[in-house]
């Protein structure tokens, strides 16, 4: 395999669910968002928007709104110093018409690429992240009074991993099980 600088960052990235209380510097948050901003998107629409919650009082109120009922077990995310709400502003042509024809919501793919750029940049800066999909989307929309043109896609917890936290190693399928060149059989 070719020598690379990014593969070690990718290999070391894990979902962090135990964070220290150390605040995350705004400069580092903005560096992660810059990495996310540079992601490719369908027709270069760049549908992503980022709502950063780093004020402890607002974060607590937000958590009380979106991590209740069936979403209660996601309250661990409130220990992260930062929660980023990943939003999308889908484009009429590329994301609605094109997505309808292809049966693929392109803006979700775009947000996934952008969000992973964010997560990898955070890893490179010594920060931990965790993608969060289990939260009340409707209450997120209400909490921030979001316009209908904005879609709530994901949350991402961000912070310094708790001291002593050790990432679990995850089994990955071997390349030979996943790759075919030029034909399927």
Throw out a few tags for this protein.
185 residues, globular, alpha+beta, NADH Oxidase, four-stranded antiparallel sheet
Task: Walk me through the structure.
The chain is of the alpha+beta class. The chain has one domain (15-163): NADH Oxidase (3-Layer(aba) Sandwich), CATH 3.40.109.10. Helix content is 39%, strand content 15%. The protein contains 7 helices and 4 strands; from the N terminus they run ααβαβααβαβα. α2 crosses α5 (106-124). The longest helix has 19 residues, at 106-124.
Question: What's the average pLDDT?
Answer: 92
Number of domains: 1
Unreliable spans = none
* CATH class designation: Alpha Beta
Question: How many strands in all?
Answer: 4
Number of alpha- plus pi-helical segments: 7
Helix content bin: 25-40%
**What CATH architecture do you see?**
3-Layer(aba) Sandwich
Radius of gyration: 18 Å
* Terminal Cα span: 24 Å
| Main sheet record | 4 strands, antiparallel
Q: Tell the overall outline.
A: globular
**Secondary-structure element pattern, one letter each:** HHEHEHHEHEH
Strand content: 5-15%
> Structural class from helices and strands?
alpha+beta
């Amino acid at each position: 395999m070719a020598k690379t600088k990014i593969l070690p960052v990718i290999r070391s990235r894990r979902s962090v669910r135990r964070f220290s209380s150390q605040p995350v510097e705004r400069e580092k948050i903005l560096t992660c968002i810059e990495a996310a901003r540079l992601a490719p998107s369908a027709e270069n629409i760049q549908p992503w928007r980022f709502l950063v919650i780093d004020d402890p009082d607002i974060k607590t109120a937000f958590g009380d709104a979106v991590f209740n009922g069936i979403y209660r077990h996601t309250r661990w995310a409130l220990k992260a110093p930062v929660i980023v709400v990943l939003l999308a502003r889908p484009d009429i042509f590329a994301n609605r018409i094109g997505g309808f024809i292809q049966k693929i919501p392109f803006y979700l793919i775009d947000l996934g690429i952008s969000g992973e750029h964010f997560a990898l940049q955070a890893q490179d800066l010594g920060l931990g992240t965790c993608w969060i999909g289990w939260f009340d989307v409707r209450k997120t929309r209400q909490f921030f009074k979001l316009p209908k043109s904005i879609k709530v896609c994901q949350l991402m917890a961000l912070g310094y991993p708790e001291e002593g936290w050790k990432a679990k190693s995850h089994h990955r399928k071997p390349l030979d099980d996943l790759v075919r060149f030029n034909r399927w059989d």
